[in-house]
Amino acid sequence: MSTGMSASTDGRSDARTDGRSDDANVVLGAPEIGRALTRIAHEILERNKGGSDVVLLGIPTRGLPLARRLAARLVAVEAGLDVDALVGSLDVTMYRDDLAHHPTRTIGATDIPGDGIDDKVVVLVDDVLFSGRTIRAALDAISDLGRPRAVQLAALVDRGHRELPIRADFVGKNLPTSLYERVRVLLEETDGRDAVLIEGGAR
After folding, report:
1. DSSP-H helix ranges across the chain
2. pTM of whole model > 0.70?
3. Which sign, positive or negative, has the C-alpha torsion 138, 142, 143, 144?
4. Tens-digit pLDDT profile for residues 11-45
5. At 177, phi and psi to the nearest 5?
6. CB distance 124 to 90 below 8 Å
7. Residue 30 DSSP symbol
8. Quick one: which of 17, 6, 10, 5 has its CA closest to 186?
9. What are phi and psi of 184, to 5 degrees?
10. What would the pLDDT profile of 74-101 be if each residue is shown by its tens digit?
């Protein structure tokens, strides 16, 4: 497996019900997110010489709609690909090393495409890459599901501050941040609009 890879639940703040914040700075809007996903889709196809062996596993919550959007772009470029065979979801809740600190974390769904992941190229898809701990948990979860040929990571935003030796293979936007800032990804499917926000600032 590739160790180049991390994640949404690391450093994601709870969204306000209206998806906005008084001190939020919008760093990516819907057009920029769309272009970033299109570029990532092309990079996935180029790196893997097509999409026939690729499985996109979205990490809930926002990694899953991002995986579906990437799959639609792969299908649009390469005839013969099937969205349903490309996309699955991978819940990593029970594999995290911080459950003692977040005992009420909601357990999501794991749904693997019918052909499984054995000898496939698994691309983990998440919204924010931060400490790396979510992807470490995802690697543990994958090892219980099968033996892929390789594991890669696509992240919409890499905000830095890694705690583990994990990097993304495909990044929509590298976003330098301070530890006191919060990065929020809003998506149409979950939040009613597309945006990447930075909240807070240096102390």
Report:
1. 30-47, 63-77, 83-86, 133-143, 188-191
2. yes
3. positive
4. 443 334 344 544 689 999 999 999 999 999 999 99
5. -140, 165
6. yes
7. H
8. 17
9. -120, 130
10. 999 999 999 999 999 999 999 987 666 6
Domain 25-182, architecture per CATH: 3-Layer(aba) Sandwich (3.40)
Q: Tokens standing for 31?
A: 């057009």
* Tokens 């000898």 found at: 119
Give the span between the Cα atoms of 167 and 162, in whole angstroms: 8
Q: Do you find a cis peptide bond into 134, omega within 30 degrees of 0? A: no
* Domains of the chain, residue spans: 25-182
Task: Give the integer Cα–Cα distance in Å for 76 and 134.
Answer: 30
Q: Convert the pLDDT of each residue in 117-128 to its tens digit.
A: 999 999 999 999
Q: Which long-range contacts (CB under 8 A, 24 or more apart) does 178-186 make?
A: 178/202, 182/11, 182/12, 182/13, 183/11, 183/12, 183/128, 183/130, 183/157, 183/159, 184/12, 184/13, 184/15, 184/21, 184/24, 185/8, 185/12, 185/62, 185/127, 185/128, 185/156, 185/157, 186/15, 186/19
Token pair 């979801």 in the structure block, residue? 89
Output the pLDDT for position 103: 58
d(CA 70, CA 44): 9
Q: How far is residue 177's CA from residue 78's CA, in Å, rounded to a whole number?
A: 36
Tens of pLDDT, residue by residue over 152-202, are: 999 999 999 999 999 999 999 999 999 999 999 999 999 999 999 999 875
